[in-house]
Amino acid sequence: VQLQAFGGGLVQAGGSLRLSCVASGRLYSSSVLGWFRQAPGKEREFVAATRWNDNRTYYADSVKGRFTISKDRAKNTVYLQMNSLKPEDTAVYYCAKGSPYDTNFRAYNNWGQGTLVTVSS
């Protein structure tokens, strides 16, 4: 499965962006699709994840209430709606596939190329 993430850009603090991650190939029911981010000089960190076969979602505390992960199975696409963006949200955002759910990026074996999100103050 190949993953392609896009939708990043430059936005002012308080603004919104929606990231998309398109998967080419079959996603099995046990798959977990996640979003991670990596700021310069920092380790890659978990942002949000969703199970492909049900509606369970998971979020990092730092984005709860601001970010929403969703999916469109017909389009093999996972979205990350990001609202009330803060400068500290600035990072390269990656989508990834793994199984089972984990917040550790090392548990995910398929990665998209990343899309840069820059939030200006």
Structure in a nutshell:
This protein has strands at residues 2-6, 9-12, 17-24, 32-38, 45-51, 57-59, 67-72, 77-82, 91-98, 108-111, 115-120. It is an all-beta fold and 121 residues long.
What this model shows, in words?
- With 121 residues, the chain is an all-beta fold.
- The chain contains no helices and eleven strands.
- The protein has strands spanning 2-6, 9-12, 17-24, 32-38, 45-51, 57-59, 67-72, 77-82, 91-98, 108-111, 115-120.
- Strands 2, 4, 5, 6, 9, 10 and 11 form a seven-stranded mixed β-sheet that branches. Strands 1-3-8-7 form a four-stranded antiparallel β-sheet, with no helix packed on it.
- The radius of gyration is 13 Å and the shape is globular.
- The model has no long low-confidence stretch (mean pLDDT 95).
Topology:
Layout: E1 2-6, E2 9-12, E3 17-24, E4 32-38, E5 45-51, E6 57-59, E7 67-72, E8 77-82, E9 91-98, E10 108-111, E11 115-120
Parallel strand pairs: 2-11
Antiparallel strand pairs: 1-3, 3-8, 4-5, 4-9, 5-6, 7-8, 9-10, 9-11
Strand content: over 45%
Distance between the termini: 37 Å
- Pattern of helices and strands: EEEEEEEEEEE
Tally of DSSP helical segments = 0
Number of strands: 11
- What gross morphology would you assign? globular
Helix content: under 10%
Counting helices, strands and paired strands, the structural category is mainly beta
Note poorly predicted spans.
Answer: none
Largest sheet: 7 strands, mixed
| Overall residue-averaged pLDDT value | 95
Rg, rounded, reads 13 Å
